[in-house]
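Quick one: structure tokens for this chain, please?
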Amino acid sequence: MTPLDYEFLRKLLQERSGLDLSSDKQYLVESRLIPLARRVGLSGITELVTKIKAGSEALTSEMVEAMTTNETFFFRDKVPFDHLRETILPSLLKARASRRSLRIWSAASSTGQEPYSIAMCLKEIAPALAGWRVEILATDLSHGVLEKARTGIFSQFEVQRGLPIQMLVKHFTQVGELWQLNADIRAMVQHRHLNLMQDFSHLGTFDAIFCRNVLIYFDPETKAAIFDRLARAIEPDGMLVLGAAESVVGISDVFKPYPERRGLYRPNERPNAARPARAGAAAVLKAVAAR
């Protein structure tokens, strides 16, 4: 890969996905893109770049997907799910008691472990949510990981990473050497393709947003722009969950830390700010209350 090829790919990746590669990451690009080039019958990265420059949108999308990180596992980092059980859900159940509806968004959801972990937490309190309209939306840039997520099928290695044994027994069915989430949990999550670099106001507003371990790869300006859009997509009393190594401090003032809850944030007041409409009832799932 030539220096010009690398510079072209760096700029394109930042434009399309927000990924901000430093000048010394050629090895990472080569390790991810040489297999892609070979798979589509090209001699190497230089020919791949030539095809992309010629306007191959399909190849550009494959390149971006190959470069995005999809590391995830069930109940990753534990603390965010403690926040969900101990702070987010108790607060929202009280605040939403009159309208009896709840919307949660898992952004950059990868192969589905995070939104399915959220679904299992909600299933634990199904009696309290009986009669509620509940939606869990999972979005990702990669079509490939979304397809895997929709199946709800995971390897032995994947279910061993963070998933308590009692939840494996309760919510999964063994299929040969694999494990599949039961239909009731799968039905609680909607999976949709979404690029966080683009406008997402069409999604409406949410009561809680999990956006973890993705903005860490973006430059400060891109992070600030996404925080601004996230603030417009969250209810005034809603909550944002970031990854352990992420923070809004020093980047944006649209969110403020939730007291004594690491990684949890609330939106600051935004007078006269236009907010997306809340999603219609037709789009809302009711599966969480199913027994």
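Residues 280-291 have pLDDT under 50 and may be disordered.
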